[in-house]
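User: Run a structure prediction on this.
Assistant: Running it now.
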Amino acid sequence: MNEQAHLNLLYQVGELASLVSLSDAVDSFLQRAVEMVALHLRAEVCSIYLYEEAVDELVLRATKGLNPEAVGIVRMPPGSGLVGCCLERLETVCEGCAPQHPSFRYFKEAREESFNSFLGVPIHRGQSRIGVMTVQREKSDAFTAMDVGTLRAMASQLAGVLENARLMMQHEGRVLAPALPTQPVVLPPLFKGQGAAPGYAYAPGVVAP
């Protein structure tokens, strides 16, 4: 996959995230996000796990490629399994043959025994843990450095939205958690600009008065 395709993915997910304003849109957003990432990265599996602080567990909240009945069922504490290690250390985990890794944890509900390559990135804001996004492929050693960079950028872009998704789920009583803050949930804005030249660049962002 070329760089332009990765950039298009980031933009499309940004547009999708801007539509999440009501709690009844959260499940749809999570599912559309994993389907979009799986399609663009050509991965058989993409999943989002959200961290429930009150019970200190990661919970599978959306998946494309694993057993959909495992959503809400598969749970693990930070540090358990490759997904849990990713959250506990706030580090990317990329394994070419995940089932052979000593930290690998098998969940029969997920039916993931046929997938070898594993890539997981933590979703966080500073040291505040939000969750983990993962992609998997049947082929071993299937993820490139560009895949890693794209998934990291995706996690960073979605961090605020997924944090709000957790609050919305708590509000609906779907997650055991402390009381919600009284402030309304405010989603990050999406700005669409006109490119002055082809390619892309990294630079500090500045808010114009």
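The CA atoms of residues 45 and 136 lie 5 Å apart.
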